[in-house]
DNA sequence: GTGAAAGCGCTAACAG
DNA sequence: CTGTTAGCGCTTTCAC
């Protein structure tokens, strides 16, 4: 038989509560119940379904709770009700030993920041809080496992959680994958998935360069081997080139030297240098797989006295705020990251709502090409019209 | 007597586990224990203190856990161990009905973003995850209460949580206040506190304008009534003015019209308009209480054909990324927001470490004045050297 | 090194 | 509308 507080009083002469008060311990339902002269069930009801309690009783309980400084234990609640009211997000650990405290690091994190923002906003709308953690080394006691064990639903950015761990987690709770390709692995093909139209976006942008600006020699920079997103972008680039009959440029563009390992501004600058000093003719356009690199290239080109877009066209991908701020403003493909976070939450909430479980959902969010000055579509102004 | 799983087996003919497996329910310690032929205590030990279990046993347990897809329940853990491994943050709800989806909203949130980033990073270092929630309407079932009941420690941005609620929370768990003034309220004076040197920063900046640039007519914009941070900045501004003997300018600057309710770009533009069209002589410098407004003013001034800094000097406060991107780059006071988040976590972790409880700590983080083009200290370049 | 058993604080039937 | 009671899944003494 469990010794409830009531039993304790009989058992140890009622000292329990005295001691509690003296050491200023954390008040529980039992304390509130006793102080307001009701049962713990009623205290619970006051919080869970206030309308099911008579107004006078409710007042009394609330008063006692307030006097005691009572805050319900989320753990006990979660354990008893089998739900936490918390959604989780696991994102890549961007902390780069080389860039501790550097601004570049800041920019790199914008991607996760936006997703966090979107998820937080949507979660709030549904009454959920958001638990976030960067993925670190795995293992039984990893932060990821910690988080996974405390949430009702879990969003995971691509390649941040090992397949096996993810499989276990998804057995417990709904999981949605963010970015990356739809999991091919059969053990994960039941997961919902949200991605952006990487290939189509890069295709549209490239087509714009080839078709509208008449460019023929394009170089693509940023084919990181293990990033499916970048792979998809490259496919889009290639498709547009092939359609326009500019294959040669394509082949030249995937020289190993241009597989940037980090996709940082520094790497973008390096790529621009290589492209300018290369043996063959300089490409007419540098097509970067992200904005970071493109911005780095912009700087390198300025250093070399080359004008953008007159001497060479530069484009990025992502549509980070910075892309609009640099001069010339960067032509790029805008990804709706905030919306991605929101969609992820909506998907999770839907699964949690207990409606008839449906087939795994895979959303592909549309992107939009922002035609700005760096491809020659917009005048270069001195002061950006922000807002 | 509690019916443990063992008892259940006797009780219902061992169906419990069968059913569990069939409905693919969430595996628990009991399942892992049974499958690996040990007691639940041992399963627990494998996770909590692996070294206290014989290697062979450990392997067996881990294997079973993996086959079952076992993930420990954070709730049960937290309840039993009285700690969650999670820190919380409550920040203001910036969502403005007027700016849904607008870019301005984005910029406004940068402040919280940075703090989130700092806290996440520091929390991770200490093995904690971060639970975040914007403050909404209070009440017993508010998100804030939800969060407070699930964390080991709680950081709260100024004026996001009602005093009474905060008092209750701080009785349970360590709380650190971010920004704002040190709580004057005696019920909250035991809280740790982290702020930045608002007054000194604005003083330095103003002194720079008066002393180094010889400006005499300064207008201050942004005295929101209930923001202690802005109040402090204004005090710094006034002190510098008084010291330099330019009181008149000060008085004029606090006209009610210039008490901006929102501190947005739009408001900054409006303030610039008022200042330009005002009856008296136009001030030589517009000193804004944040970067947002200053950027708005920059745009309004360009619209009116006024050159910055030649015709009028403009300064901001915060040092958001945008301040460096606009042309002319904004002279401003940089606040170390990321560091603020990190300090908050360090403070919480220290309190949680169980060391001899010390006096409440109040940190005032130093700021630095970024002298850029908008006050005439730096050349206006076309392409910002980002990085 | 391992097991048995007592809760952690709350929710959710189920009675009344 | 309110009280009783049996757990939720795990950690943690205390024995062996």
Automatic annotation (TrEMBL), chains A, B:
<protein>
    <submittedName>
        <fullName>LacI family DNA-binding transcriptional regulator</fullName>
    </submittedName>
</protein>
<dbReference type="InterPro" id="IPR010982">
    <property type="entry name" value="Lambda_DNA-bd_dom_sf"/>
</dbReference>
<dbReference type="InterPro" id="IPR028082">
    <property type="entry name" value="Peripla_BP_I"/>
</dbReference>
<keyword id="KW-0804">Transcription</keyword>
<dbReference type="Pfam" id="PF00356">
    <property type="entry name" value="LacI"/>
</dbReference>
<keyword id="KW-0805">Transcription regulation</keyword>
<dbReference type="InterPro" id="IPR046335">
    <property type="entry name" value="LacI/GalR-like_sensor"/>
</dbReference>
<keyword id="KW-0238">DNA-binding</keyword>
<dbReference type="Pfam" id="PF13377">
    <property type="entry name" value="Peripla_BP_3"/>
</dbReference>
<dbReference type="GO" id="GO:0003700">
    <property type="term" value="F:DNA-binding transcription factor activity"/>
</dbReference>
<dbReference type="InterPro" id="IPR000843">
    <property type="entry name" value="HTH_LacI"/>
</dbReference>
<dbReference type="GO" id="GO:0000976">
    <property type="term" value="F:transcription cis-regulatory region binding"/>
</dbReference>
<feature type="domain" description="HTH lacI-type">
    <location>
        <begin position="27"/>
        <end position="81"/>
    </location>
</feature>
